[in-house]
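Re: folding output
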Amino acid sequence: MLRQIVFLLVASVMITACTEQPPRFNHFDEGQQALSNINNLLSNQSSSDSVTSWPFSNEYLQARHFNYQGLKSIALDESQQAQLNYLIIAERYPERYFVWPEQRDVVSRAINKKDYSAQKLATWLELVQTQLMQAEESSLKLNKIELKLLHSMVQNHLTNNDDEVVHSALSKLEQYLSQYTPRSKLGLVGLANGKDWYQSKLNYFGAKTQPPLTWLSNIQSQLKQIAIHNVAFHLPTSHSTPLVMQFFSQDENVAGLDWQLEYRDPLQSKRELSAGEQYFWLVMMETDLGIHYHTWSEQQARVNLIKRLGVTKQEADWLIEDIILYPATSFIFSS
């Protein structure tokens, strides 16, 4: 079933490609700006006052695909090319079925735009539910932490939104999520083609191609050689940006293409880490592999973080959420 859906989606893009041409960019910045425009309800850095594209709608997916193709036609440096390759590979995987990313409050962002349309927001909320239902038919499901975060946002807006058409769409989505049964495995390995998706993330963020077992062996070897450190760090109140970005250089802002990293090039933006910070991120990488590849439960991941880092249960749970929402990003600090 999943293969049939993927085939139909790819065929749809190919048919559209016959009648439309990718945009012609003169340089990288133009392509980055085009992606920023279509991701304006997802990126924290969006400067647009208008709703230019609803996340993961058909129009969004087509525009994103064409922008990627447009970037392929211009000269890119090695790092820019690696970013683009990573994002193009991600088109193969089931992200499109999870229309509302749990780390972004799309509804609040939409309501604050000057051309906000309650009817369009309601239509998008219906798409969120429709795609989740279609995903279920292909055994693609949210895990319990993703479900909790999404359900919480829906309930919050249901309480605070008085618009009749939006309230109706939120109510239907809330009812659906209330009876939703999440997948048993927390990590990407619990999704169809999830291991391949995770491998692509490891290849990019780790800047090398090697299997998860090799990564784990190297990480655990390094942990044995480093004294345990108590690391002081600040946990934000939300997951609107991944924790890794707290460890990016504040002096350099190298342009990137991924809205999840606020259009910064992660491998060019990371700063030098202290010994304690290096230890912290090695533990995060170990836990990341445990969750996304070795099917660790929430309890297994929590125990590892508390034992290795001496964090509280609340802090460990926040770190687990960050690992689930931003798989493999910790591997930015693998070298």
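--- second protein (sequence, then structure) ---
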Amino acid sequence: MKKQMKQKLFNLAAGELVSVIVFWINYFIFKKMIIVTNSLGPISFSLFVLSFILVQGAAFWCILIKRMSKPRFAVKYTGKIYNVFKAIDQILLCIGLAMIIFNDSKSFSNLISFAIWGFAVIEWINYYKIQLSYSFNPLVLFKFMLQGKLRKSRISKEIDKSLNSIKYHD
């Protein structure tokens, strides 16, 4: 059981990091196809924010892997650090949206920017609010939504634990 959980966490961490690499490789391959150069800023920034959020997720899965052998590993600081990441991410997402909205270019690349930004928002919600991934079948998510059975995300629980420990220590 422990080995399966470790493998699952490793797959999550590796998947996030591989995604970041693949996204950036595609960006550099397809960048030449984007004719409007002022569209590169919103696309690049949205991709940076998405990558930043995905790397945070990968790091968290690695922390959980380490906790399997050392249960108290980074317990004191993880929630506090991720609470800061949560706030930074919100600021970056707002800046990214503003860049997309106020970009002079009304081309197809704005749609690409918005799609990447939207994916970053979904990942942020998945990490910092509610767990959105339950199965490869998207109907499972819709079933949980309709039944009101969505669970709080692991990082959100970690942040809550750290904030509660601060309240009790004051």
